[in-house]
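Protocol step 4 of 5: obtain the predicted structure for the target chain.
Materials: sequence only (see below). No template structures provided, no constraints applied. The aim of this step is simply to have a reference model before the mutagenesis design in step 5. Sequence pasted as it appears in the construct record:
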Amino acid sequence: MPDRKGFIVEKAGKLYVRVCYTDQLGKRRELMRRAQNRKHARELKKELVKQLENSAEGNQHAELDGAKLTFRQLAERYEAVKLVPAQYVGDRKVAGLRSFETPKLQLRLLIEHFGNARIRSITHSQVDEYRLKRLSEKLKISSANRELALLSSVFNFAKREGLISRSPFEMGAPLISAADETKRQRVLSRSEEEKLLLALSDPRRLHIRALVVAALDSGARKNELLTLNWGDIDFVSGVITIRAFNSKTAKSRQVPISDRLKGELQGVRNESEPDSLDALVFSNRNFKWLWADALVEAGVTDFHFHDCRRTFCVRLIEAGMQIEQVSKLSGHSQLSTLAEEFPAALGRLAQHYGGVSALARRFKIDRSNLDKTIRGKRRPSPALLTRMGATVKLSYEIRVVRSDAK
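Step 4 output (structure tokens):
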């Protein structure tokens, strides 16, 4: 047991409590706190010694340091350690963040609210008050959840450093509820796709058309496509390699090249005549306004570029591909994330069959659970994923659903 002793000393007419202890490394350390009077000094000595006894082995000083640390000071420590540029070993990210501007902005908002409050004085109810305040300012639930997730990360950082023993998030009901978020389920129909690609056939937008076809037929993220070079495309084998360095999940993968994507890629190559395999495949020149104009011209509303990725996943699920195989092509690291696209596929089938009840009867599924899944209130169960996946052949149903444009 490390040796810990407390003394009351007087210097220049003022009382202090001095506590000496031996840390885990065998070094002698000393803490000193000012007392108001003799009675307070005795109480303070007992409190400091008790904190040292109860603190984690080797973290005694951090435990006491946390007693007077403000949230602002903690946030500055967190930012200096965690919100830093990504560091790589080869293609693998080993530390830092690829994008840290948004977390830094969110951290500034948290500092404005909690500021000079001692980190140990911040309670579960105070965090909940911040959540309700942000929601009252018309912030989306998903955005509020991102801020709370960062706040939770800051407190977990303090906990790992021995500055606190418990996070406010551990002292009450869950404050972050992903189930309350409005899940986006927009999928491009075949008729809308035809109109959009026609609008993108304008000579000014052809480079955007190739990018859109690539997103629809590969499911790749926008940044993954914009960082592709010609060395990543193998026309002989018919695959595109998404390098780990450019992937959001830092894992490489290969996706097949469809016939129409092959035609688009060959057109881009003939037009740009790249001088090396390191040249970028796609250009996002004037993307924002060309994309917006094409959507208006095609009459396609409420459609984001990232919805192309969802469309790719939903079409594969509708075609009966197992969700595990879809995740390998799309690059989703968590099946639970990909499962969020499942309700869109179910909704389209339910619309074809004339309602949720009819679809439930067709596949012998509990109607209530199916309805909750379609509305995003319930995650798809493994049994449902299997039944609506490869185990049940949906070839007839998919042919009908895909003919909605005709």
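Step 4 remarks: The radius of gyration is 29 Å. The beta strands are 4-11, 14-22, 28-35, 87-89, 92-95, 233-234, 239-242, 253-256.
Proceed to step 5.
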